[in-house]
Amino acid sequence: MGRSPFPTPPSPATPAAPAAPARPAAAAAAAPGGRRETSDRRTLVVGRGISVQGSIQDAERLVVEGTVEASLLQAAELSVAPGGVFRGEIEVEDADLAGTIDGTLTVRGNLTVRATGKLIGKTRCRRLQVEDGGQITGHLEMITGDMPPRPASLETSAPAVEKSEETTPSV
């Protein structure tokens, strides 16, 4: 049959590249504050010119350079590159937006909208930074304290708050 179409891997006795420096097990598992380092996170990169539809699960970090349409996605970190588009519903810890998000976005931590970023739809976030040129269109709600999300039925039937004025007698 001849040769295999796949190159043979190097043998363990002769390393092809120098070994990476050893890291302590505790440092590899978690960074300070209990968070895993970015390089240790399960990352999904949707490259330029690639379109993905459906459900994405178990990705801790999502980098969108192409187009993603997802019904519900939960991740630790979202990054939408210039020219990248995310359509659908997503809940993340932190988001960096240089492309477009069209849908519902919940960010429990920091949301950064870069100069080329466009946010369309409904957004909830704890902290927001918008660079000059960044665009937000739709409903924006800031998350304060440890409040759980309000049910939709309460948003439409919230009682009106009356303003009372105190009068002081003039002398």
TrEMBL record:
InterPro entries: BacA/B (IPR007607). Residues 1-40, 144-171 are annotated as: Disordered. It comes from the Bacteria. Residues 1-15 have a biased composition (Pro residues). Residues 16-32 have a biased composition (Low complexity). Residues 162-171 have a biased composition (Basic and acidic residues). PANTHER family: HYPOTHETICAL CYTOSOLIC PROTEIN, POLYMER-FORMING CYTOSKELETAL PROTEIN. Belongs to the bactofilin family. This is Polymer-forming cytoskeletal protein.
